[in-house]
């Protein structure tokens, strides 16, 4: 077992933003632990996959345990797993509410607690939370209360954790995306969704991946909410 390369854990890693991050960090030589409900085994010996529901504490425990047994350390955790349900506020069901809280909040809490405990032993580490610019700038016609409730909480937690662990060598940041071209948005929706951004188009998966790459190398940056949203959070 070698610990000479940096090790990154990425949640929600089977498709979309998570898959883009896996590719970006692998190109930089990182060793990767990738997890999601539906993730498949990897043929790359430097990519270890763990299938499971990140909202369950047992999954978080398994991810961290296998990261340490396989690669010996955890340098970075990216809390990318998240779900978005666009419904009028009064149409949300108890199941919708439970599902969003489970993935977006429980999926952050359990694995981040375990990862930071390991980072403290090392005296270094970095956590990046993927949130949403809808927290800062709600859009008429895009109902997003549950997203704002949960991802807004992650923005606040990012700053709180950054201060709590600043003197212990652990940084905590967030990337706040606009609407990104992922499999959840059909191509027929791209023009309309693009017009919701001041720049007039949607973002690309690599825009978010490279933002995370930047933050991981930015040693003097902590407590930052980096908006990668085509100007969405600035106004319209």
UniProtKB/TrEMBL annotation:
<protein>
    <submittedName>
        <fullName>SDR family NAD(P)-dependent oxidoreductase</fullName>
        <ecNumber>1.1.1.-</ecNumber>
    </submittedName>
</protein>
<keyword id="KW-0560">Oxidoreductase</keyword>
<dbReference type="GO" id="GO:0016491">
    <property type="term" value="F:oxidoreductase activity"/>
</dbReference>
<dbReference type="InterPro" id="IPR002347">
    <property type="entry name" value="SDR_fam"/>
</dbReference>
<dbReference type="InterPro" id="IPR036291">
    <property type="entry name" value="NAD(P)-bd_dom_sf"/>
</dbReference>
<comment type="similarity">
    <text>Belongs to the short-chain dehydrogenases/reductases (SDR) family.</text>
</comment>
<dbReference type="Pfam" id="PF13561">
    <property type="entry name" value="adh_short_C2"/>
</dbReference>
């Amino acid at each position: 077992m070698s610990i000479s390369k940096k090790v990154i854990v990425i949640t929600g890693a089977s498709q979309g933003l998570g898959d883009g991050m896996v590719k970006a960090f692998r190109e930089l030589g990182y060793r990767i632990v990738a997890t999601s409900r539906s993730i498949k085994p990897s043929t790359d010996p430097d990519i270890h996959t763990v299938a499971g529901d990140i909202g369950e504490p047992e999954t978080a425990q398994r991810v961290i345990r296998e990261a340490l047994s396989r690669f010996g350390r955890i340098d970075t955790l990216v809390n990318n797993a998240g779900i978005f349900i666009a419904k009028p506020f009064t149409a949300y069901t108890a199941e919708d509410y439970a599902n969003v809280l489970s993935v977006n909040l429980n999926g952050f809490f359990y694995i981040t607690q375990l990862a930071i405990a390991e980072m403290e032993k090392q005296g270094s580490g970095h956590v990046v939370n993927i949130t949403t610019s809808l927290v800062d700038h709600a859009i008429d016609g895009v109902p997003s209360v549950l997203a704002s409730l949960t991802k807004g909480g992650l923005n606040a937690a990012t700053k709180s954790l950054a201060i709590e662990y600043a003197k212990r060598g652990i940084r905590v940041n967030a990337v706040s995306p606009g609407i990104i071209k992922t499999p959840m948005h059909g191509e027929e929706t791209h023009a309309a969704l693009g017009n919701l951004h001041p720049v007039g188009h949607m973002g690309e998966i690599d825009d978010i991946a490279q933002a995370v790459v930047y933050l991981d190398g930015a040693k003097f940056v902590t407590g930052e909410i980096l908006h990668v949203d085509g100007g969405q959070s600035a106004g319209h």
